[in-house]
Design a protein that fits this description.
The protein is of the alpha+beta class and 718 residues long. The longest helix is centred in the N-terminal third of the chain and has 19 residues. Helix 2 packs across helix 10. The strands form ten sheets. Strands 34-35-37-36-38-39-40-41 form an eight-stranded mixed β-sheet, with helices on both faces. It is globular and about 70 Å long. 16% of the residues lie in helices and 34% in strands. Belongs to the peptidase S9A family. Its EC number is 3.4.21.26. This is prolyl oligopeptidase.
Amino acid sequence: MKKTFSGIFALAVLASCNDSKSEKEITLNYPETKKVDTVTDYFGTEVKDPYRWLEDDRSEETEKWVKAQNEVTFDYLNSIPYKKELEERLSEIWNYEKIGAPFKEGDYTYFYKNDGLQNQYVVYRKKGDDGETETFLDPNKFSEDGTTSLAGLSFSKDGSKAAYAISEGGSDWRKVIVIDTENKERIEDTIQNVKFSGISWKGNEGFYYSSYEKPEGSELSAKTDQHRLFYHKLGTPQNEDQIIFGDSEAQKHRYVSGSVSEDDQFLFISARNSTSGGKLFMKELSKENSELVSILDHEDSDTYVIENEGSKLFIVTNLEAPNRKVVTVDAANPGPENWEDFIPETKNVLSPSTGGGYFFARYMVDAVSEVKQYDYKGELVREVELPGVGSAGGFGTKKENKELYYSFTNYVTPGTIYKYNIEEGTSEIYNKPNIKFNPEDYESKQVFYTSKDGTKVPMIITHKKGLELNGKNPTILYGYGGFNVSLTPSFNTANAIWMEQGGVYAVPNLRGGGEYGKEWHDAGIKLKKQNVFDDFIAAAEYLIEENYTSSDYLAIRGGSNGGLLVGATMTQRPDLMQVALPAVGVLDMLRYHTFTAGAGWAYDYGTSQDSKEMFEYLYNYSPIHNVEEGTEYPATLITTGDHDDRVVPAHSFKFAAELQEKQAGNNPTLIRIETKAGHGAGKPTSMIIEEYADIFGFTLYNMGFETLPNKTEENLKG
């Protein structure tokens, strides 16, 4: 049974250079979404949850709802006259060779490469400098539809063995396969049910990995909260794997990981209950049955061991150093009372790495990279000369190597890989992509705008040169603002198409992110989360005030925590934008912590169970609970994946149902549910291109463009 949405969506566009208008009418018939009488009491406040039944991802009823919603959505998207043209152009610009930085393991040099439109990157290798290049792993052959991806690859000490993780349908649950690298054949049974895990080898004999007990109920949505670290010895079955940490109530943590030092002397164990802050332990592997030693027994900092020289540990920490520093300590007495500064804290955020016998200190200066090279005495060797203003990544390799590879990119420069001579400090281009995009036609500039409380926030605005500031440029404002994540300048192939169409792409560095260290992060969490939304709203207002765009031509976009950002902004200020694009969003702030590992996000959000004050704060901005009857919301395309077991799709399902029921205006409210896709990682190229064509098509169509902007003489709405 279907109900007819309140009426007709009328799209008015200028058909010619005169003032006459043509109208195209699209009738939207949304599927019926039943309501149930579910109520939860929070500190005396009764909150209705009429669409809670959509949380059951295994029910036939939910499956039918998903299918019915997708039929309406794809009928609409496929009716957009230039959707196919966008898809063809995206495929054309995407079709260039992409090569990753090479790395040495044993006798071989390995590298990742995608010929252009391959769904997944292929791992290649060659022996020595003159060996013939051969395929090592081809994830495109893991599944017929390209939805099984390579999710991790780790080599034993001498490179003779490798363990690689695969993800099926985008799920965070992994399988780990062990092979002999010489003949590429499996050497034992597949390790099952691995989640949120690295693979860290101890010599050539085995490796450490992490996982949870398989939950009761749906593995895609049921809560997981006790992570355990295992050691797998080659040649033994998985059920004999030794539990190293996390099997007792005292060691119960949501996120546990283990990392072996490069010299195989130590195992370092991180144990966290949230995405920020954790304890740190160590075991001396060179001694049999060594005890677990505590380096940090509290969760007040993000601290990890980056390197060791014998018993001397080099530790990265933000304990009493919000922008991070590197300290040294002897493993015999590793507590913080014995730490000595090695690379002291500065006013800029530090992200260090090691390679070739040196430390490389990468700093963020207003979200842009600077890199300094230090020796093991802590003395500055040089400041690394970078190719330009942007983001540099990499700067890591094994201790014995004489060269390393790093990447450089910004919003108009496709990612280029450079080879760096560690002793001489010189760089040369290793691989520059041959892409049909000319950076010289575009410009990218950083501005600082003022948020609601007077805070200065940086934003980088990118567009074609010669852009007319007439308030009529289609603009995507993209944000994240959480979990200490920093949005630094980087090239995106899809965004090149957006800018090619005359679009503006703007990225503010909102509070809640890590661009200015722990203090900037903490200024956007829990009872200060509204700062993030205010920063985003102020960014939109700046773009409008400066005539880059206007509300009629503004789209807001973000994914995951950024999906929450979009959901909160569009419900607080529905007048501010024409289009809203929340992707895989955290949208039910009262229940997010009850799914999968969601409780681990409490450092940023707090939970509705914490206190009456925290509940009321979350309830006040939770997107699902702030959709109001009779309000005209922007044209909305919600995107999610049916295998998203990080931010479960029920968030998006319930938000779509609320919007479809209460939307007062004629703007469409659609949800696009990708099947056999998860939170985003490992998504095949073909799926990514189709999704971007739909997103850009929906956005431009709802800004009033009957044809693509670069083909329209008059790009006005009427």
